[in-house]
Amino acid sequence: MVWTIIVALIVGCIVGPLARLILPGKQNISVPMTVVLGAVGALVGSWLGATLFGGESGDPWSWSGFILGTVVAIVAVLIYGAITGRRDTAGRIG
């Protein structure tokens, strides 16, 4: 269980910034927030993967958890970027 969390955090810290690089345009997300979103998304995704698809107990690695964690981390960065949006100097979203 502990290794699963550690692996998910490491993967999330890598996937969060990669998701930001993949997104088109300029995002108004700081690098630390991107890393945090990636880590949290990877943790949630790996937990969902283990819950939905099972896995051998004590095994820190599962492909379903890794893939789902990666997808959730990318989606978390996308959602945060969409919520915060781009604002101009007048405060209008645009």
UniProtKB/TrEMBL annotation:
Q: Which domain of life is it from?
A: Bacteria
Kindly indicate whether the keyword Kinase belongs to this entry. Answer: no
- Record's subcellular location: Cell membrane
* Alphabetic keyword roster: Cell membrane, Membrane, Transmembrane, Transmembrane helix
Predominant place of localization: membrane
Q: Which GO terms describe its cellular component?
A: plasma membrane
Membrane-spanning segments: 6-23, 35-55, 61-83
Q: Which InterPro entries does the UniProt record give?
A: Transgly_assoc
Which membrane topology describes this protein?
Multi-pass membrane protein
Q: Name one Pfam family in it.
A: Transgly_assoc
Q: Has UniProt tagged this entry with the keyword Iron?
A: no
Family, similarity comment: Belongs to the UPF0410 family.
* Name the record gives this protein: Putative membrane protein YeaQ/YmgE (Transglycosylase-associated protein family)
Species assigned in the record? Ornithinimicrobium humiphilum
